[in-house]
Design brief:
The chain has about 325 residues and is an alpha/beta fold. The protein has 2 domains: about 15-100 and about 130-220, 5'-nuclease (Rossmann fold, 3-Layer(aba) Sandwich), CATH 3.40.50.1010; about 220-285, DNA polymerase, domain 1 (Orthogonal Bundle). It has 13 helices and 10 strands. It is globular. Belongs to the XPG/RAD2 endonuclease family. FEN1 subfamily.
Length: about 325
């Protein structure tokens, strides 16, 4: 989910913090990418029509592999050096949000069943996408594919967004590419949107720099984190009736959540046992790995063992190497 309303808030109150760039501007740059968000997008979109999904001969879902292959090839063709970061254990503070998502998937499954019974194709399409969940098998398959393509991966101990931000802060990556705005809250110095779109050559990349965001908003990094917590994030409830606009006004007026709560109008109710301080610490000191060796991009593995998931190779002649192609297809070149 990220931070509620942050995109709109920045567009209105920090318009100069967002710069439109061409994808060519990142040629030769290392870009850290949240793999889990990408995989979810692929499972929802690639090869899906209603309840039908892209599979191989064994009936195993391969949408995530097809999408990962296509996206990675396009990034490499553009001269970008991608590093895919995979989620580790979610923090305890996220368990309530994950439980909510699980309940929503259960509700979507019931709605999907009803839509199938009455033959409502539009509802089938809508609810089938809401039942998507990333599994360990999805992650493992993409990790294997990326390794065979010679593309580095990072297995984060915690949240992938936090690890991506850490790579950027520690100069292992030039920027973080994601659609999830809480990457900014984790302090990524440079954040890119739309660079991972399969149509990125037609659409400009939007680049945010945290120092410019803070300057435009007139906030410190600590105040920006408090703003995001008040607006609503994945790790705790927010105060009902306070969205991004009011949260910004309150932080500018009072400086921090403690003072906001002290001076809050009685019509607002602060959630019981509200763990905003723990959430603040999570954003400032997330569980990340800082001992990351230098990244290496290598030629794709030509000695490919074929199995039920990977049947054919796909040639990428500029690199004189071959990529695995999920599912049965004809031998082809790009």
């Amino acid at each position: 989910m990220g931070i509620k309303g942050l995109t709109k808030l920045l567009a209105e109150h920090a318009p100069r913090a967002a710069v439109q760039r061409r994808v060519e501007d990142y040629r030769g740059r290392v870009i850290a990418i949240d793999a889990s968000l990408s995989i979810y997008q692929f499972l929802v979109v690639v090869g899906r029509k209603g309840t039908e999904v892209l599979t191989n001969e064994a009936g195993e879902v391969t949408s995530h592999l097809q999408g990962m292959l296509n996206r990675t090839v396009r990034l490499l063709e553009a001269g970008i050096k991608p590093v895919f970061v995979f989620d580790g254990e979610p923090p305890d503070l996220k368990k309530k949000e994950l439980a909510k998502r699980s309940l929503k998937r259960d509700d979507a499954s019931k709605d999907l069943h009803s839509a199938i019974e009455v033959g409502d194709e539009d509802s089938v399409e809508k609810f089938s996408k809401r039942t998507v969940k990333i599994t360990k098998e999805h992650n493992d398959g993409c990790k294997r594919l990326l390794r065979l393509m010679g593309v580095p991966i990072v297995e984060a101990p915690g949240e992938a967004e936090a690890q991506c931000a850490s790579l950027c802060k520690n100069h292992k990556a030039h920027a973080v590419a994601s659609e999830d705005m809480d990457t900014l809250t984790f302090g990524a110095p440079r954040f890119l949107r739309h660079v991972t779109d399969l149509s990125f050559k037609k659409s400009p990349v939007t680049e945010f720099e945290v120092p410019k965001v803070l300057e435009e908003l007139g906030l410190t990094m600590g105040q920006f984190i408090d703003l995001c917590i008040l607006s609503g994030c994945d790790y705790c409830e927010n105060i009902k009736g306070i969205g991004g606009q009011r949260a910004l006004k309150l932080i500018r007026q009072h400086g921090c959540i403690e003072e906001v709560v002290q001076n809050l109008h009685k019509r607002y109710t602060v959630p019981e046992d509200w763990p905003y301080q723990e959430v603040r610490t999570l954003f400032k000191q997330p569980n990340v790995c800082t001992e990351i060796p230098d990244f290496q991009w290598t030629s794709a593995d030509k000695e490919v063992m074929l199995d039920n998931s990977y049947h054919t190779v796909h040639i990428f002649p500029q690199a004189d190497s071959c990529f695995l192609f999920p599912g049965p297809c004809e031998f082809s070149g790009i």
